């Protein structure tokens, strides 16, 4: 017999590819059909892998695809049950599997419904061709944000470039600093972007940075470490993105935040991830990060009034931003 020292060795197992995961689901298909008493379309298996890869982060293959199929089966089974007769229908489904297979089917739409429940992204967005949304993004944003065509076009182009794969992989879809005085449309553009990309303004996560002015603010955003008060609550930022990884994040009046918070944002923009107080990695690659600031707003006001040229106003604003950045670093 081979000798064993009694020790253990860590073996790293690579995450399976999408094709390998589809093959695993096909092998498990009959087991889940019998469990839920219905038929699972092959297209649903493929959709589970595609949607899991696209919309679900923080969990590897094959687990997230298997969980999707299991939950989609439960969702499809519930649609067969009249309200008030669920227990009776469960027995019927399990005891009459042949009839159930003929009557109930798990299709890609059931999978999309589950992804929608988990991520908060409406089913209509999951079903819609992303290409169509991106092509018309600029024009749809201009319908809501009036008088800011240049800013709207730059934002739409940046999102399109990221989705085409030209930006750094792993980083957020886009990151923007909106400068200008109150009422020019900075927040409205953020809302419009959330509505157009994710079909709901509820996908906008807003933080008023005037509430994060001390060094302890970092812990409020990412969560306190073990033994600290509030550890179990998690971070205000990391928990929201962990639950809804597809979001537009708005950091309003970012210049008011403590420098330690801004350094955290620099790390976020560089790496695309943050580690929360519980040691979990939270992925921000499917977010759009927008920071707003009133820095240099007086120069833009002067430009609008014709006291200086708009080109000169923009140069003065950028000089002020650069000075502020040097103070942080």
UniProtKB/TrEMBL annotation:
A GO BP annotation: cellular response to heat
GO terms for MF: ATP binding; ATP hydrolysis activity
Cited Pfam families: AAA_2 (PF07724), AAA_lid_9 (PF17871)
KW Protein transport (keyword) present: no
Domain (AAA+ ATPase): residue spans on this chain: 172-328
Database matches in InterPro entries: AAA+_ATPase (IPR003593), ATPase_AAA_core (IPR003959), ClpA/B (IPR001270), ClpA/ClpB_AAA_lid (IPR041546), ClpA_ClpB (IPR050130), P-loop_NTPase (IPR027417)
Keywords: ATP-binding, Chaperone, Nucleotide-binding
A GO-annotated cellular component: cytoplasm
Top-rank taxon: Eukaryota
Name of the protein: AAA+ ATPase domain-containing protein
Organism: Aegilops tauschii subsp. strangulata
């Amino acid at each position: 017999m081979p000798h064993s020292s009694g020790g253990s060795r860590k073996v790293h197992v690579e995450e399976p590819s999408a094709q390998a995961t589809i093959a695993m689901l096909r092998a498990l298909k009959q087991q889940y059909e019998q469990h839920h008493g219905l038929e699972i379309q092959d297209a649903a298996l493929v959709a589970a892998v595609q949607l899991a890869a696209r919309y679900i982060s923080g969990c590897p293959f094959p687990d997230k695809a298997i969980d999707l199929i299991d939950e989609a089966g439960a969702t499809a089974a519930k649609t067969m049950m009249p309200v008030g007769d669920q227990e009776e229908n469960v027995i019927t489904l399990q005891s009459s599997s042949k009839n159930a297979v003929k009557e109930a089917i798990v299709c890609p739409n059931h999978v999309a419904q589950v992804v929608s429940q988990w991520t908060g992204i409406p089913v209509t967005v999951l079903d819609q061709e992303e290409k169509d949304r991106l092509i018309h993004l600029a024009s749809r944003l201009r319908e809501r944000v009036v008088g800011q065509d240049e800013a709207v076009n730059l934002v739409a182009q940046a999102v399109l470039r990221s989705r085409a794969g030209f930006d750094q992989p792993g980083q957020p879809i886009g990151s923007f600093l909106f400068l200008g005085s109150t009422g020019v449309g900075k927040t409205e553009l953020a809302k419009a972007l959330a509505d157009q990309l994710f079909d709901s303004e509820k996908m906008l996560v807003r933080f008023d940075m005037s509430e994060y002015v001390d060094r302890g603010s970092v812990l409020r955003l990412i969560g306190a470490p073990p033994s600290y008060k509030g550890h179990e609550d998690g971070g205000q930022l990391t928990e929201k993105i962990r639950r809804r990884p597809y979001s537009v994040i708005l950091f309003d009046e970012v210049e008011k935040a403590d420098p330690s918070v801004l350094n955290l944002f620099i790390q976020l923009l560089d790496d695309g991830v943050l580690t929360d107080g519980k040691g979990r990695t939270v992925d921000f690659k499917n977010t759009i990060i927008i920071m707003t600031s009133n820095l240099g707003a007086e120069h833009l006001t002067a430009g609008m009034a014709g006291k200086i040229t708009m080109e000169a106003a923009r140069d003065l604003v950028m000089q002020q931003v650069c000075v502020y950045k040097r103070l942080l670093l």
